[in-house]
Description:
Blueprint (H helix, E strand, L loop, with lengths): L1 H6 L2 H26 L3 H24 L10 H25 L20 E5 L3 E2 L7 H15 L5 E3 L2 H5 L8 H8 L3 E10 L2 E10 L4 E11 L3 H15 L20 H14 L5 H17 L4 H16 L5 H18 L4 H13 L4 H14 L4 H13 L3 H14 L4 H13 L3 H14 L6 H12 L2 H10 L3 H14 L3 H15 L4 H10 L3 H13 L21 H9 L10
Parallel strand pairs: 1-3, 1-4, 2-4
Antiparallel strand pairs: 4-5, 5-6
Amino acid sequence: MWERLRRRKVVxxxxxxxxxxxxxxxxxxxxSSTFEWSRHIQQLATIGLIVGVPVVLVLAWYHGDRGNQRVxxxxxxxxxxxxxxGGGAFWYYQRAGHTPTMTPPPLVAAVAxxxxxxxxxxxxxxxxxxxxxxxxxxxGISEELLNLLSQVPELRVxxxxxxxxxxxxxxxxAEIAKTLGVDHVLEGSVRTAGDRVRIxxxxxxxxxxxxxxxxxYERTLKDVFAIQDExxxxxxxxxxxxxxGAGTGLPEVGGTQNSKxxxxxxxxxxxxxxxxGEQTLRAALAAFDLAVAEDPSYAQAHAGRADVLxxxxxxxxxxxxxxxxxxxxxxxxxxxxxxxxxxxxxVLGYVAYAADHDVPAALAHFDRALALSPGNAYVQRSFAFxxxxxxxxxxxxxxxxxxxxxxxxxxAAQIGLSRxxxxxxxxxxxxxxxxxxxxxxPEYPSVxxxxxYILLETGDLEAAxxxxxxxPIDWTRQTGIVLADAKLGRTQIAREGLAAAIAQHGExxxxxxxxxxxQLGDPDESFRWLETARRIKDPGVMAIRTDPLVDxxxxxxxxxxxxxxxxxxxxxxxx
Length: 575
C-alpha cells in the first residue's frame, strides 16, 4: 500500500494541497479583517477546504502514474473511507457550531456562586390587613428589610425581583431556596388597623425547614422604623454573622421618622417596581414628590425621585436635557443629605455618562456606589450598563454576572448580562443568556429586541426582523425592523422606514438614525445624526465605542474626532 501511495504521489499532493489551503486561509483572514467581511465567509471557506482534502487525495490516487488502471476493491474501500471521514468532519463541525435560536437553555445562570457567604432571601410579607390596598405597605416593609440586610458584607441577599417572583404562588420554602440558591429564608406578615401595625417575621433554615427565630411586633406606625431595625438585628444574630459590635443594629441610611413620608415612599417604591410604562413611572414620581413634601430631608425619597426621572429620560418620556438635569438635582440633594446612600451615586453616574459625556466622572460615581453597596444588584447592573458602553468588557460582564447571582430569576438582570456579552462580541454567550431572559419573562420590554440585535450580528436576518416585530418598545421595534431591512439589502424599504420614523419622532431618535444610515452605506448622514444626538444629549451616542452597528464608520477620520470629543478615547490613552 505504501509503495502504491509513493508511486502515485498521493503524499506529495496532500502536502501541497494543505500548504496551499493554509496560505489561502491566511490571505482570506487578512482580507476579511481589512474589508470587515462576515465571519461566515471564513467558516465556509475552511469547511470547503477541509472537505477538499479527501477529494484531492482520491484524485491523486486515481490520476497518478498508474491511474490508467481500473480502481480495485482496496482502492474503492480507501475512497469510501476518505469520503466518510470528510463528510463526518463536515457534519460534526456544523453540529458543534450551530446555535439554536429558539430553544431556551436551562434557567440556571452560568455564573459562579459566592459560596463562602451566608445567603438569604426575603420573601414579600403577606398583607393580612382588611384593606387590600395596603399591599404596598407589606411589600415595602419586606423591601426595606431586604435593603437593610444587603448592607451586611457577610450576607448574600437575593434582590427584590427574584424574591418577590414567588408572591402568591403555592411553592414550598425548600423549592424557593433551591431556585434562588440560598440557605435561609425570611418570611412574615403585616396587619394594619388605624395607626397600629402588627408585624410577624420568621427566619427559616432551608435545609430542614426549621425555624431559627420568629417574633411578632405590635406598635404604632410611627415605631415601624424601630421594628425594621430590630428585626434585621435579630436575623443577623440568628445567622451568627459578625457585625460592627455586639447588639449593634443595622444603620438605615437616609431614612425618615415621618410616617406619612414613609408611607408615600413605600407607595413610590411599589409603583417603581411595576415596570417601565410612562404612566406607572409618573405615578411613582408623584408618590416620591409627596414623600419629599412631607419630609424634605428624606434622602431615600430624593434618591427615588432621581431614579424615576433618570428612567423616564432614558426611555424618552422626558426631554434629554431637562430630564437629566432634574435627575441630577434630586441625586445631588440625596447625596448631600446622606453621603453613604449608594443609589444617589448611581444616578449621578448615569447623568455624568449620558448627559455630560464625562466618562471618568461617571466611573468615579459608580466606584463610590459599588464601595458603599457591593451586594446591591441594582448598583451592579447600573455600573455594567456604563462599563460595557465605554469598552470595559470584562468589568461589565463581571458586574452583570454578580447582578444575576444576586437576582437570579430577574429577566432584566439576564438581559444586562446578555448585552455585556454582545458588546464584547461574544454572540453565542449573549444569545444563550438572552433566551434565559425570554424564558423567565417573554413580556419583558426589550427582551425580543435584545435577541434581534444579536441575530443581526450572527447573520440570521429574517429571524432578527421577526424578533424586532415582537418588541413593545416603539423605538426598538421600529428602528430594529429598518436595520434588518437594511442588512437584508432591502434598501428602498429601509429608507422609507427611516423617513417615516424621522417624520413621526423627529430628532429624539437621532442615535438610531445614525446606526441605520451606517448600515445603508451613507456615512455623511450617519455623522450628521451622531452630531444631532450629541447636541440633544441622546445617551445612545456614548455607546459608539463598542456598537457593532457603526462599524462601517470606524475608518472614517470623523469617527476618531467624535470619539475624542466625547471623551471615549480616554481609556485608550490610559487616562
